[in-house]
């Protein structure tokens, strides 16, 4: 059979590998699938035959044996514009790809931004298509997390959604990060600290606003609703929000924004008003975006380890897929404050 494959120039088969190694087809299959029920001598012979013949296992045939697709999905509940504009998402993707680099796992990425998208993606998220799912940037009462938990398909979330605690998720201590920002601004002598909060249908937005209010309370400063504006983590919305804050509270001497892109918008609005940064108004963002180093002045920011988040998410998911015990079903990563000239 080996001679027939060589003459035809066709792709070597499992049977050809078995014949070259002098073992049965089942032994070759067990070696390929990592079974321990193979003698060292037989394993060595099979591996040598695979190398000699340049054999590549048929993924479809292998999946029939292993019941796996060797694929995972990363589903991001954001628009394409946000996904590719904000460095946080790129960091998470880099972390995920690094974690699966030495495995046979393939990653496919999709965006969900409407009920139509959710229906389409939901129909594809089955064991016939993927071994597991990573969900990122979940808003409000998105049904995907509950649906996937109920289906039994291994799922890990990036961030905990509001109103629902999933089995496995990785998050940043958002409240503590916001506290760091406020503590820093208080230490700088700021008394009228505003915030542009993130969307309140996301726990990250809620927790960062809670950290802001907690920081003010501990410092003995009044939590004034006039000092709070709301955004969607984007620069353009924050630009208008900062303009409104300055119009109703001209005495603002600092602002904490729940994302770096919103800080970029705040910086623009403050400069438009003729105020100096940080002399008149200090600014601190949240993300640790590489772009924060390039603003004028360079932006102080709470760094959240996006790549580490992606690595931890992928590691949790691979363990779930393999049926391995998971010591820590949830992982909370610590942020840190990077102080630059904006504060």
Can you describe this structure?
- The chain is an alpha/beta fold and 343 residues long.
- It has 3 domains: 2-66, 434 Repressor (Amino-terminal Domain); 71-171 and 307-333, Response regulator (Rossmann fold); 174-304, Rossmann fold, CATH 3.40.50.2300.
- It has 14 helices and 12 strands.
- It has helices spanning 2-8, 14-21, 25-32, 40-53, 59-66, 80-85, 87-100, 115-124, 144-151, 174-187, 203-218, 235-248, 260-272, 306-322, and strands spanning 71-76, 106-111, 132-136, 155-158, 169-172, 193-197, 228-230, 254-257, 282-287, 300-303, 330-333, 336-338.
- The strands form 2 sheets. Strands 2-1-3-4-5-11 form a 6-stranded parallel sheet, sandwiched between helices. Strands 7-6-8-9-10-12 form a 6-stranded mixed sheet, sandwiched between helices.
- Helix 2 packs across helix 3 and helix 2 crosses helix 4 (40-53).
- It is elongated and about 85 Å long.
Which CATH top level class of the largest domain fits? Alpha Beta
Distance between the termini: 74 Å
Main β-sheet: number of strands, strand sense, barrel status? 6 strands, parallel
Mean pLDDT: 88
Q: How big a fraction of the residues is strand?
A: 15-25%
Give the strand order, joined by hyphens, for the main sheet.
Answer: 2-1-3-4-5-11
| Overall form | elongated
H-E order? HHHHHEHHEHEHEEHEHEHEHEEHEE
- Rg, alpha carbons: 26 Å
How many DSSP E strands? 12
**What is the number of helices?**
14
Uncertain stretches:
1-8
Total individual domains: 3
The share of residues in helices is 40-55%
Within the CATH hierarchy, at the fold level, what is the topology of the largest domain?
Rossmann fold
Class from secondary-structure proportions: alpha/beta
CATH architecture of the largest domain: 3-Layer(aba) Sandwich
CATH superfamily (homologous) name of the largest domain: Response regulator
């Amino acid at each position: 059979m080996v001679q027939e494959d060589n003459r035809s120039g066709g792709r070597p088969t499992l049977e050809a590998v078995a014949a070259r190694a002098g073992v049965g087809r089942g032994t070759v299959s067990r070696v390929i699938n990592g079974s321990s029920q193979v003698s060292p001598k037989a394993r060595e012979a099979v591996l040598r035959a695979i190398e000699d013949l340049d054999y590549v296992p048929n993924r479809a045939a292998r999946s029939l044996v292993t019941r796996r697709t060797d694929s995972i999905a990363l589903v991001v509940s954001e628009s394409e514009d946000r996904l590719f504009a904000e460095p946080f998402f790129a960091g998470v993707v880099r972390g995920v790809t690094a974690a699966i680099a030495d495995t046979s796992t393939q990653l496919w990425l999709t965006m969900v931004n409407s009920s139509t998208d959710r229906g389409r993606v939901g129909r594809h998220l089955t064991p016939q298509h993927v071994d597991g799912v990573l969900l990122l940037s979940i808003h409000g009462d998105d049904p995907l997390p509950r649906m996937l938990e109920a289906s039994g398909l291994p799922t890990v979330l990036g961030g905990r959604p509001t109103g629902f605690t999933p089995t496995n998720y990785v998050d940043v201590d958002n409240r503590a990060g916001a506290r760091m920002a406020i503590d820093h601004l208080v230490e700088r002598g700021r008394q009228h600290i505003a915030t542009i909060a993130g969307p309140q249908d996301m726990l990250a937005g809620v927790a960062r606003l809670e950290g802001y209010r907690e920081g003010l309370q501990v410092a003995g400063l009044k939590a004034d609703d006039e000092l709070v504006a709301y955004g969607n983590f984007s620069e353009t919305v924050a630009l208008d929000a900062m303009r409104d804050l300055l119009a109703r509270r001209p005495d603002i001497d600092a602002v904490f924004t729940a994302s770096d892109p919103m800080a970029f918008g705040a910086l623009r609005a403050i400069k438009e008003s003729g105020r100096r940064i940080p002399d008149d108004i200090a600014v601190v963002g949240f993300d640790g975006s590489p772009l924060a180093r390039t603003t004028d002045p360079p932006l102080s920011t709470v760094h959240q380890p996006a790549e580490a988040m992606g690595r931890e998410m992928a590691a949790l998911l691979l363990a779930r897929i393999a049926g391995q015990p998971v010591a820590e079903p949830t992982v909370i990563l610590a942020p840190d404050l990077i102080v630059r000239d904006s504060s």
